[in-house]
Structure formats: structure tokens, C-alpha cells
Please model this.
Amino acid sequence: EVQLLESGGGLVQPGGSLRLSCAASGFTFSSKAMSWARLAPGKGLEWVSSISDTGGSAYHADSVKGRFTISRDNSKNTVYLQMNSLRDEDTAVYYCAIGGRYGGWNSWGQGTLVTVSS
Amino acid sequence: QSALTQPPSASGSPGQSVTISCTGTSSDVGGYNYVSWYQHHPGKVPKLMIYEVSKRPSGVPDRFSGSKSGNTASLTVSGLQAEDEADYYCSSFAGSSNYLFGTGTRVIVL
Model:
């Protein structure tokens, strides 16, 4: 059974940092691109970042470029999202999903809540 | 990067059909056959309903169908059922701008 388990969310002050993790199991992690998306309160889904199966290519939305970094460790079946210089508008539930920029994200994690507030 | 445009809501009675549009540009929806559709019941995990414009993952009822014409993609739900009431999001590969979601449509079953 495919499982994606996000962790690392929480309350952080503006300007602070968090690192989200997404532990994967039930499939060949090293052969799949992975992505992060977020859902802010009262808003729609927003793509955040994607990374290729090898980790050799990474992509970020303009809204997070220069502040967020996606990475992966195929030996640990885990994808990460390092979030720096957090802003109020980064408050959202963050989901990891199997799939890259061509879409077709067929499995999603349960999500982890990030709250940026002073 | 601007979100793809969807109507805020769509509604239909049980058994009827509803079609949701997703309008982009030639740089995203119109330029690639990489449009996906996701169903999201609030508080739950999003679910893939359609990928590559019109392909259905296994387990998704054939009541759900996707299509595209020019810069607009569409999701049609036929034979509406109560459990179809949810938020629906389109998405598209967008080349150098990477990946975009739509603004989302709330489907209401009357």
C-alpha cells in the first residue's frame, strides 16, 4: 500500500524556518518524481515545488523561489521541503504527492499544517 | 504565474451532468496535453480523477470524463451522485513557468 507521511509542520514566526519531511513507502520511491502543494485557508490549491526521481532537477513556484528548497534522499525514501524567510501568506496545509510537473499526482499525503504568525 | 481560471461553483441535481471549465493560455493548457483534474472533499486528501487531459486512473468511475479544446479544458461529471459534491481543481504543465493549479470549482449536488 502506498503511504506518504508528512511531518515537520507547526507554528513559526514570520522570518523563521521550518523543514517538512515526507516519508514514502509502498512503491519504488527512487523511480518517481515528487511534489509539494499547499492549501491556504479559504484559498485554492497551489503548486509549491517538484523534484525529479534522481533529485537532479528541482523546480519551485515563483511565490517561494529563493526561500524554499525541495530535496530528496532516495536512501531514506524521503522528500524534504526546506522553508526559509517564512511569511504570513505561507500559512497553509502542505501536501506531498507522487508526481512531477506533468501532473497525474495519484497519491497524496494527509498534509501537515504550517502556521506563520507572530 | 497566474492560476488557471475555473468557475467558482457549478451545480446539478442527482442524475444530471455538470461540466467544469478550466481556462488557461497557449503556454499551459493549450500548449501541452498534461491537464489533470483533482477532487477534494474538505478535510480529506485530494484525489486524482483525470490525467493527460482525458485518461482515468483505475478506480475512478467512467462518469468522470475530461477533454480539451484550445486553451480550455473541461471536466464532465455525468449521473451526478451525492458523493460527487466536492471541490474540483484542474492543473496543467506550464513549461518554463512549471506547473499551475486552477482556482477551484465547488460542485453542489442539489
Notes: Chain A touches chain B through 25 residues (CB under 8 Å). Chain A has a mean pLDDT of 96. The first strand of chain A starts at residue 3 and ends at 7.
